[in-house]
Amino acid sequence: MSRLEGWSEGWAAGRTSFHRTFVDKSLLEFQSKLLVKKPSRVLVPLCGKTLDMKWLADEGHEVVGVEGVLQAVMEFFQEQELPYKESDVPGLKGAKLFENEDKKIKIYLCDFFQFSKDIAGQFDAIWDRGALVAIDPSLRKQYTDVLLSVLSPGGRILNEVFEYNPEEREPKGPPESVPEEDIQKFFGEKFTTEVLHDYDHLEGNVKYRERGLTWMRQKIRFMVLK
Ligand SMILES: C[S@@+](CC[C@H](N)C(=O)[O-])C[C@H]1O[C@@H](n2cnc3c(N)ncnc32)[C@H](O)[C@@H]1O
């Protein structure tokens, strides 16, 4: 199974519990750290149909999402009631670009690992919720390489990750645990990193207790490209 096939099946079957019907609270809380330039060019990797993109555009920023499943892209434009245009992406076979009328929101339909600055230029900021934790841990270096390719000097990343003991968990799968060692290994050399929030994610969360976890942290991290 290709890495996108499983996600596509999940979308078709309505397994999208990651989707929120409100704008992310950490994005709201830390917008002034992430969005220093006004307007900023903001990348939302593995964007799904998150409302955060609409909110960012309404704040005047230019938003580029990257998503591998067509259904997610269609549902985003339909649910936000945004007319869009569809086009091919020069240099990226099979990919499509969907953009709204004022071109403030663009979504590339492609595998994120094929994305680069040659396709959509460079970004001031990256908002990563449900992206680093969604990819297979073996692809973390490739994932960081794409982020590094598209981030401008001094560019900023706000991300949310989870930490838990993967051996406790059944069934396994996303959200994957991203320990501090991996943040240091993949981001530590090129970025300054700062944990802004460190929450207990098991409190009141039956789902992950039932999957065997005895602890789970949710961390909001801010990183700046040195
Ligand atoms: C956990 S969801 C998070 C979605 C969104 N960021 C949010 O906060 O609601 C991960 C999304 O990434 C998409 N995806 C997974 N692997 C991908 C890949 N390699 N390239 C592009 N999209 C991918 C999935 O279809 C899914 O919509």
From TrEMBL:
Reaction catalyzed: S-adenosyl-L-methionine + a thiopurine = S-adenosyl-L-homocysteine + a thiopurine S-methylether
Domain of life of the source: Eukaryota
Any one GO cellular component localisation term in the record: cytoplasm
Record-linked InterPro entries: SAM-dependent_MTases_sf (IPR029063), Thiopurine_S-MeTrfase (IPR025835), TPMT (IPR008854)
GO biological process entries: methylation
Keyword Translocase: no
Protein name, per record: thiopurine S-methyltransferase
UniProt EC number: 2.1.1.67
Annotated family: Belongs to the class I-like SAM-binding methyltransferase superfamily. TPMT family.
